[in-house]
Amino acid sequence: KVIVDMNFTQMQFNAEFDDNAFDLKKNMTSATMKLSKKASGDGEKNSSSFQVFYPTERLGAKLASAKKAMTDDGKKYVFQYTGENSFTLVEQNAEAWSNTVEPASVSGTPVNLGFAIGHMTNNSISWTYQGTDFFLASKNLKPGQMVDVARSVFATKMK
Fold first, then answer.
1. How many whole angstroms separate alpha carbon 58 and alpha carbon 56?
2. What pTM was estimated for this model as a whole?
3. What is the C-alpha end-to-end distance of the chain, expressed in Å?
4. Which of 133, 60, 150 has its CA nearest to residue 90?
5. Residue 3: per-residue pLDDT
6. What separation in angstroms does the CA of 107 have from each of 8, 42, 121?
7. DSSP letter, residue 71
């Protein structure tokens, strides 16, 4: 699967660059200024276009409750599925980048969901997709079953 395909029609060899063109601190400062302006200035977190996603693979569990709350970070939804293979799915607006870019430390094992990379612990998976943070937790599901449910979440959405 090709992600990026580039064709060059022209190339300049021995190009001249300013002495600080590749200075990490200078470049990161410029990038974070652009990001923080977008993240804090356009009201994106409180936008009414927040999409709610539902799992298509529920392993026999039924939706027992759906709760919506407003937090400092925007909307948050908590869906509880009950049955032999019960689980809880939490969805909320992804955190906006702050004025500094720092690596995030997460615990668990990386897991490929096909549309995103999540991190899995003994009884949970977390990932981000299309501006939404997801957290799936269960004491009943085996790791493979949790991955199956998580992989199915991106398939359906409702406003």
1. 6
2. 0.64
3. 31
4. 133
5. 72
6. 41, 32, 7
7. E
Block residue for tokens 């699967």: 1
Q: Closest Cα to residue 138, out of 85, 62, 79, 91?
A: 85
Enumerate the H helices of the chain as residue ranges. Answer: 24-41, 143-152
Q: Which two tokens stand for residue 21?
A: 């063109």
The tens digit of pLDDT for each residue in 63-116 reads 999 998 888 777 889 999 999 999 999 998 876 544 445 566 677 888 988 888
DSSP, collapsed to helix, strand or coil, labels residue 27 as helix
Half-sphere exposure of residue 118, counting CA atoms within 13 Å on the CB side? Answer: 27
Total residue length of the chain: 159
Question: What b/e sequence results for 111-122 when a residue is b if at least 16 CB atoms lie within 10 Å of its CB, and e otherwise?
Answer: bebeebebebee
DSSP 49: T
Continuous segment of H or E residues that includes residue 53:
strand 52-54
- Taking residue 85's Cβ as centre, other Cβ atoms within 10 Å add up to 17
Give the position of tokens 């943070």. Answer: 133
Cα–Cα dist 114/100, whole Å: 29
**Residue 22 three-state SS:** coil
